[in-house]
Amino acid sequence: xxxxxxxxxxxxxxxxxxxxxxxxxxxxxxxxxxxxxxxxxxxxxxxxxxxxxxxxxxxxxxxxxxxxxxxxxxxxxxxxxxxxxxxxxxxxxxxxxxxxxxxxxxxxxxxxxxxxxxxxxxxxxxxxxxxxxxxxxxxxxx
Length: 142
Hints:
By secondary structure, the protein is mostly helical. Helix content is 55%, strand content 6%.
């Protein structure tokens, strides 16, 4: 969290409720559409970079394919870093933490409570909001 607070970056997390989308193709298409829209909306910023590096740990082949399709818009400047070991990349670790916190935030919106282990890990709901969710909200793309 200290690195996340101090590092200069912004992030965007895409979520999808599988209750409202059925089938792998529909999930893929929905996520691809959102990701491409985000990339197009931010293309001016992205085009300002010489290279765009996409790090993925090959956890889910469907996600890797989705990323390749979406970043085809920037094919000439996109580099996919293969076989990523999370312990070697701080931003990758930060992304993992951010995704976890976004899942907890989503859970709070829908269930309005934490599990016992989440409550213990974050030392309570107030601590979670003040020391985890609030700091990351300033880094999130609108």
